[in-house]
Amino acid sequence: MGDCNTSTDERAPSVEDDITVVFHKVVNHGRNNGHDHDDNECGDAERVLLRGNCRGDDVEEGDDAEGKEEASGSEDLLEGGKKKTLLCPPAFCVRRANTSRGGSAGQDAEKPKRCPGLGLFYAFVSTVFFSIIALVVKTIQGLHAIEISAIRCFFQMLFVVPLLIYHKTGFLGPRDKRIYLVLRGFIGSNAMILLYYAVQQMPLADATVIMFSNPVFTSLLAWIFLKEKCTIWDCVFTVFTITGVILIARPPFLFGDHLRGIEGNYWNHIKGTIAAFAGAVAAAFTFVVLRKMGKSVHYYLSVWYYAVIGFIECLIAVSVLGEWKIPSCGRDRWMLMLIAVLGIAGQTFLTKALQIEKAGAVSLMRTVDVVLAFFFQFIFFNRAPTWWSLGGALCVVASTSGIAVRKWYISSRKS
């Protein structure tokens, strides 16, 4: 009898093992024979097999096979024995938790890790491309800004058509979004024409700085049309931006008639300043329209409307002004094609950057555009910036960077 109560296996069962509890019912049949088998001494046995209900869907097939073998093996008990299979209470369900944690850890390990600076790198590449476009426009002589815009829109149409066919987006877009697509194309193409005209009429860095002020106007227009919140900081940044534009324009009634660092005559400088300022406002309107459309319209469809409407508009304007000319120099023809290619590449990289990185960080990276504009102006045109231009650039960059940092901070707090 003592042999039946003695355990030969001292290992404590873990929570991951099935636990078999054996109840022995001793029946005396007379004289006990010490030489009999232990099973005969212990008589009939009633075994209760505690099976864990912890097996989830993520358990491997090997575990299931082992469970089936154990279940089938438990039926081959001692003759006359009884078997009961119970489900363990939730307190024993450690195995499933461990398994699920291991599975989730494996899934996390299988997910590709995102490069932390990839979005900022895309933003930097797009900024470099846009700066090169402005430089190329500045070097082309004898062509009106509207004609350059028309040629860029034409090549953009050629590049976008295969992308629209590949993505199966169609050429018209959703019916309820077409009015916004038309507005995006019309206003965006006007912003491009005004920027190219400003670059031709005034120093490259000054035109770039004024065009770079569009985030400030975007906040104001979003407050007016999209009912977004406008704070005192938006007003402060707007004042800084207007101050920077005034320092760059240097109107005679504030700075006198004797001005240095102006390219050509002062009237061309004023025309370039007005065009750059109007282009910044038009670009801000474009961003507001894009926000209104949201993500329901494919990006390449938006670029398609931009190219088609811009091409039609530029053709009409060039025909009315009589400014249509074929570039006589082969280098200028290649430069025009380069503008179109860099335009597509810059917009693509900017879109990828906004998909990966927050808008505030991307806007901060776009400040490199101003630095590159001053660098290109000094290297390629041998024109050093004046202190007034540097002061105006500092005001504009400070205001746009302030808006970007503020949005970045707010989005980080929400997340």
Detailed description of the structure:
The chain contains 17 helices and 3 strands. It is mostly helical and 415 residues long. It has 2 domains: 2-110, no CATH class; 118-414, no CATH class. The protein has a 3-stranded mixed sheet with strand order 1-2-3. α7 packs antiparallel against α12 (266-293) and α8 (204-211) packs parallel to α12 (266-293). It is globular, with a radius of gyration of 37 Å. The relative contact order is 0.14. May play a role in intracellular calcium sensing and homeostasis. May act as a negative regulator of plasma membrane calcium-transporting ATPases preventing calcium efflux from the cell.
Task: Please describe the topology of this protein.
Elements: H1 2-5, E1 19-25, H2 38-42, E2 44-51, H3 61-73, E3 82-87, H4 94-110, H5 118-139, H6 145-167, H7 178-201, H8 204-211, H9 214-225, H10 232-249, H11 252-255, H12 266-293, H13 299-321, H14 330-356, H15 359-365, H16 368-381, H17 387-414
Helix pairs in contact: 5-14, 5-15, 5-16, 6-7, 6-13, 6-14, 7-8, 7-12, 7-13, 8-12, 8-16, 8-17, 9-10, 9-12, 10-17, 15-17
